[in-house]
Structure formats: C-alpha cells, structure tokens
Amino acid sequence: MTTEEMSTQRTRESNADPARVYDYFIGGESGFDADRAAGAWINFQAPDLLAAMRANRAFLARAVRWLTEQGVDQFIDIGSGFPLSPNTHETVLSAFPSGSVVYCDVDAAVGERTRELVAGQPGATFVQGDIRDPERLLAQPAVRALVDSGRPVACVLAAVLHFVPEEADPARITAVLRDALPPGSYLVVSHVAGDIPWDDRNSTEALRRATEEMYPRTRSQFTTFFGDFDLVEPGVGPAPRWHRADGAADENPDLPIYAGVARKAL
Ligand SMILES: C[S@@+](CC[C@H](N)C(=O)[O-])C[C@H]1O[C@@H](n2cnc3c(N)ncnc32)[C@H](O)[C@@H]1O
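A: This is the predicted complex of the input protein with S-adenosylmethionine.
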C-alpha cells in the first residue's frame, strides 16, 4: 500500500460514513469503529431512525420479491449500498436463473464489496455511478443493455434520493430514468419523509448530524418521482405499510419513510 493509499484508508476509518452506518444497522459488517460509534449513539438515542432503516430494507426485499412474482427478471438497483442478504440479485436470480441485476452506487467501497460478492455470477454486476448524472449512468454498457432490451426493467431507488438536494433536481433525475425504461417497467422508490414526525426528537438530530446531508421530502414531493407511472396497490405511504408483512404487528406502521412502486404503461 502506498503512503497516499494508507492515508486515504485512515481517513475512511476515522470518519463515520452514512452507507456503513446504515449497513451496521441493517445487520451488515462493513463498518469501522467510527461507524459503530455513530451507530451506537443512534441505537440508544434515536430508536425510530433505527426502525426506519430496517423498515426500508424490509420494504426493498418485499418489493423485489413482489416484482419477481409479476415476472420481472431485469433490475437496476441504484444506490444499492453494501450487500446484505436478501440482496436483490439473490431474489431475482433464484426466481430467474437467466435474469439480470445491475447494481450501482457512488461509493467505491460499496463497489468493491459488491463486485466480490457477485464475482462469477453472470447475471449480476456492479457499475460505479452517480444518480445525479442519470444520462451518464444510463450510458454504462451494463445498464444500456437492460434498457435497450425492450423488456420490462425494475429500477430501484431505495433510500438514495434523500441524499440528492433540490439543486441537483431529483424530479429531473427520476424523469430521465422513467423515460429510458421500456413499457411495462417499474419504478421502486423509498425516501425519508419530511411531513411525518419522528416519535423521538433525537432522530431529527441524528439525521442532522449525519456526515452526508439528507433532504427529507413531503408525500406530494415523493409522489412526483413516479410521474405518469401507475402506482400499484397500496400506493404511496410509509414503508411498513407497503404489502405489510405477516407478523409485523409490533412494528410502527407510520415510520417516516415513504415507499411506493409504480408501473409504466404498456
Ligand atoms: C441508505 S443506503 C441505501 C442502500 C439500499 N438501497 C437500501 O435501501 O437498503 C444509501 C446508498 O446510496 C448511495 N448514494 C448516496 N448518494 C448517491 C449518489 N449520488 N449516487 C449513487 N448512490 C448514492 C450511498 O453510497 C449508499 O450506499
């Protein structure tokens, strides 16, 4: 390792990173001490935030499973995060061995881990990219191949758009992605809500302290991300309410994280 690489590694290890803190909460092992320290604070002080992160991941798993049940076998998962089972490709490729999943994240460390995990699986791949530049992302050959197939693709934007400020125009980003998708495709989105209060005041504080700025949005702002796609039942609402899992009775159904799935007309 060069001196420069060692210094980058030290910086990476001493700063809490939102992707790794999130991974720590949903049960992953990618974190360093700084991530675990930030995680411990949230764990004790902001239990709702922890519940919302887990509810988001559970929504993602339910949505991917539901989409495979609708016959969708091609997925683009943007802001995919550190892998944690059930990962999108595990669900999709077990239903459709010849299916395709393209993961995309801006974080190189996420890329390293994802590439290791999917190595040797022709149906799964990772491309590094920034959702704020959707044209560039769509031009990546692996992504291009799916959108050019003419067959339905599910584009998953789980817990990523709340990292995109208004200046970067999330409405335009989602419009570009929607336009590129073939007829019959689906858009899956989850996003921290700005108009549902957190039960514990510390969750707001924890979001404020996050090293990466977050931009919670209202239900109507969230709904615009789906454009003219048709929302599938139950529409837009808190993530735990989307195809609520059996046995989820103890979970707060109104955690401040919106979720929805919508379909492009044929
Ligand atoms: C909270 S995690 C969500 C992971 C996964 N989608 C889930 O819902 O479990 C957010 C991920 O978005 C990624 N991310 C943040 N900003 C991004 C951007 N501009 N472009 C692509 N990915 C981004 C982070 O690196 C992180 O891995």
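The chain has eleven helices and eight strands. The chain has one domain: 3-263.
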